[in-house]
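Is this the right way to post structure tokens for a design question? Let me know if I should format differently. Anyway, here goes:
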């Protein structure tokens, strides 16, 4: 079921992301390719490849924004804390389930409450304003894809600018104003690409560390520790990206069922 949070900070980050990507596309097409590669097939190839990465970026970002991150559904009956000292006389579905005092219900292992989304999220990693959503069990794959495509786009943009400055272009416009505009836009694009590139690399490193250690950022902050049996790294990636072929992990689509805790919401209250 699609979800969307009404968070002003999230709105601003989403518009900033789309604006930065569209500006990068404008600079690459208008001021790099058309100015320095308009007479070669390489120019057309770079435009196609650059926009394919943008398309994949937008698709993965949209899936991360609107996908259910793993919201634990609220039960029909909430826990009544007035019935007893701590658990309201309720019986937990399983021994390792915990109580969320905000949602007034039992939640499965590794689920945590998000104060922005106002829900408990299965295997919640963190709430990210750049996708205006929580990063959890069901959308972490799309969030990582978004980071990867932003990193690729940043590196591609820097490489195109560097090549346009390094290579000699006899057919380039000689108008001094066009040259100054191209240099200005190229410098702004490099600054944007370096900034966003370093930012997403740092976040991606945290994400892969959390996956390979089997410990989310929330669990690291709470020092709960990974008390689960060690698993191969490929198996840990499959829990996040799906049970399909590893090549499908790079596409923002369903790639096999993910690991999930069985929902047990019919507990006695």
């Amino acid at each position: 079921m699609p979800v969307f949070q009404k968070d002003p900070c999230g709105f601003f980050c989403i518009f900033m992301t789309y604006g930065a990507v569209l500006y990068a596309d404008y600079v690459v097409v208008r001021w790099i390719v058309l100015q320095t590669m308009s007479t070669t097939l390489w120019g057309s190839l770079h435009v196609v490849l650059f926009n394919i990465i943008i398309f994949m970026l937008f698709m993965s970002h949209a899936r991360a924004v609107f996908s259910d991150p793993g919201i634990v559904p609220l039960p029909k009956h909430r826990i009544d804390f007035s019935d007893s000292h701590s658990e309201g006389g309720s019986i937990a579905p399983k021994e390792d389930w915990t109580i969320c005092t905000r949602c007034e219900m039992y939640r499965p292992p590794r689920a945590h409450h998000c104060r922005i989304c106002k829900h408990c999220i299965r295997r919640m990693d963190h709430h990210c304003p750049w996708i205006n959503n929580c990063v959890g069990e069901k959308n972490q794959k799309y969030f990582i894809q978004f980071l990867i495509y932003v990193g690729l786009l940043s590196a591609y943009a820097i490489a195109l600018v560097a090549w346009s400055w390094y290579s000699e272009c006899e057919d380039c416009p000689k108008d001094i104003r066009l040259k100054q505009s191209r240099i200005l836009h190229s410098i702004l694009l490099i600054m944007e690409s370096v900034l966003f590139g370093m930012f997403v690399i740092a976040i991606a490193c945290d994400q892969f560390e959390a996956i390979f250690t089997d410990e989310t950022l929330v669990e690291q902050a709470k020092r709960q520790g990974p008390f689960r049996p060690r698993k191969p790294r490929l198996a840990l990636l499959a829990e996040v990206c799906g049970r399909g072929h590893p090549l499908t992990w790079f596409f923002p689509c369903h790639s096999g069922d993910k690991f999930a805790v069985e929902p047990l919401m019919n507990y006695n209250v």
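Format looks fine. Someone answered above. Worth noting: The mean pLDDT is 85. The first helix runs from residue 8 to 36.
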